[in-house]
Amino acid sequence: MSLKKIFVLSAFIICAGLAVAYYWFKQADKPEQDLVQQTLLNANDSNEAENLALESEVVEPTSSSTPQPKDYYVSVDSAEIRVQPSPTAPSEGTAYLGEHIEALGHQDDWIRIAPIYQLEDDGEQTSQWLPLDVVDDEPVSMKSEQWAQAIISYIEKSDDFSQHDEAFIKATQLLLAEKQCRAHDFVEIGGWVKSINYEDDVYFTYCGGLETSDKIYLDVKTGKIFR
User: Where are the membrane-spanning stretches (predicted)?
Assistant: First the structure.
C-alpha cells in the first residue's frame, strides 16, 4: 500500500471517530438540556398560574358612596349660614324653616349653597355653608306644629299680636307659601306694624326690600292682603 493511501485512510478513520464522539456527546448532553428546558417551562407555567391566581383575587373597587341629594329644606326654625364649613366661621346670614336649599357641593357634614368666591387674589376662598343637621331632603309640612310655632316666633313682635294673632299667622303663612315673602322679611321688620294711613285695623310689613313698593298690607278684620 502506498504512503498516500495510508494517509487518506488514516484521515478517514480520524474523521469517522470524531463524528461518532460528537454524536455520543450530544446524546449525553441532551437529557440535561431537556431537563433545563422543562424546568424553565415549569417555572413559566408556575408564574402564569400564580399571576392568574393573583388576578382572580383582585377585586375591582366598587363605589360604595351613594349620590348625595341636591335639594334640601331647612328643618329647624333658623340656622346660621357660615362662610366656611365650620361652626366657628363668620356668619353670612340666616336660613329659616322650610326654605328650599340647593346643594352645590358637599364637604364632610356640610353643604355648600353658594358659589365659591375670593375677595382678594391671595385671600381665603369663601362661600355659604350649612351643616347637614339643620336640613332634610323632605319638605316641611306647613300643617305641622313645628311650622306653626316657627311662624309665631317670626311675628310675635307684631303690633297688637295678642289681639290679632290668628289673622297675622294666617296671612304670614299664605305669603310664605306663595313665596311673596321670606321668613327673613318678618324677622327683620318684627312682624306686622300698625298702619297710620288707614282708619281701619290695617297692618303692614315689608317683603323683598324696604321700599314703598315692597310694603304689603293686611286688613285683620277681613283677612284681605293688598299692596
Answer: 6-25
